[in-house]
Every structure is written in structure tokens, then in C-alpha cells.
């Protein structure tokens, strides 16, 4: 592979590196059912893809009129999610190959996610990705979640990288907007196929319209090499 010069790569986690959305849906469904909301569907869950857990639960509290304190709801959601994530979270195979290739090339990498740090660490450890991905930022640790650029800028700072040298991999529109706001290039791999036409993805530097079924490590590596 050609040298990637000063390029750093920042990965979103959920829906990008791993297929964790089914676990997030189930954790949310259980939480809402416990509080009397029994009609939460996958289609409803898809509207929250790319939004941090804290913001999602805050929206649920308002939308469904939940009386419990936000902190309690958030803790319950995270507890339910961690129990599910520890049992089964699938890494997207081509993403795993991409991470390995970047590591072998010496490319600095980070994970910047809307999940809690505990959830990020649990998934990376459970999937073995923690062997390659050791720089982590949770949206809980910055002032604003995606589509604000805070989480990506914090990741770049930890890597010691200029934002202009960073490439973000994202599956959701808020993340694509956050990458653009951070002054970073974006490789978009939409998790929800129907969202591929979202205007947010139009600003992506590389768009795999077919999502994970279309994404290949080699195609991404070739693009990075051409951009370097």
C-alpha cells in the first residue's frame, strides 16, 4: 500500500464498526416497556440511529412523558444494553479487515462514539477490537453530541492530529454532519439504507450507498491512498 502520510482515521462505533443497533433497540424496547410504553418499533428506533444514548433517552423522556429522572433512565438503558452487548455483538467483517490493514500501516486510529465509555470499552473488549483501537472518546465526555463536531475534535486532539488530516467513518447522518463541522473528510457507510439519500451524506467524500454490503476494506484503502 502507498504511504498514507499524516492521515489519521476516526471510527464511529455503533453501526459502523459493529452491528450493535439490534442490542440498542432491544435495550430501549425493554426500558420503555418497563415504563408503560409497549409499542416501540424498529422503525422508531431507526430515527435515533447516530444520536447519543443520552440525547436519545432525553428525547424519550419528553416524547413519552416519562416521570423518572433522566439520570435513572440513562443508567437503566446502559445497564440493559451492556448485558446484551456482552452476550453478542457482531463486528462487520470488512471493517475488521480495514482496522487490521490500517494498524499494519501504522495509521493512528480512534473511536468516537455517542455511546457511554463503559459501552465502548465493553464492545471493543468483547470483539477483540481493543487490541487495535485504544484511543476512545465518548459523547458523554464532551459538551455536545453529534451533529456537533466535539467528539471528533476531541479524538483528533488525543491522537495529536490536525482535523484536516483526519478521515471519519460514519454510518449515520448526524455523524456525517459532525465530521464536516470538524473539518474532516468523511467515508459514509449508511446503516439504514433508506437514509443514503439524506442530504447529510451528500457532503461525504466517499459514500458507500449500499452500506456494509457494499463496503470493502480494499476500496476504502485504495481511496485513502489516492487521497494521501
TrEMBL record:
Superkingdom of the source species: Bacteria
InterPro entries named among the record's database cross-references: HAD-like_sf, HAD-SF_hydro_IA, HAD_sf, PGP-like_dom2
Keywords: Hydrolase
Entries under Pfam families matching the protein: Hydrolase (PF00702)
Record-linked SUPFAM superfamilies: HAD-like
Keyword Hydrolase: yes
One Gene Ontology term of the molecular function aspect: hydrolase activity
Record flagged with keyword Cytoplasm: no
PANTHER family in alphabetical order: 2-DEOXYGLUCOSE-6-PHOSPHATE PHOSPHATASE 2, PSEUDOURIDINE-5'-PHOSPHATASE
NCBIfam families: HAD-SF-IA-v3
Protein name: HAD-IA family hydrolase
Provenance organism: Streptomyces typhae
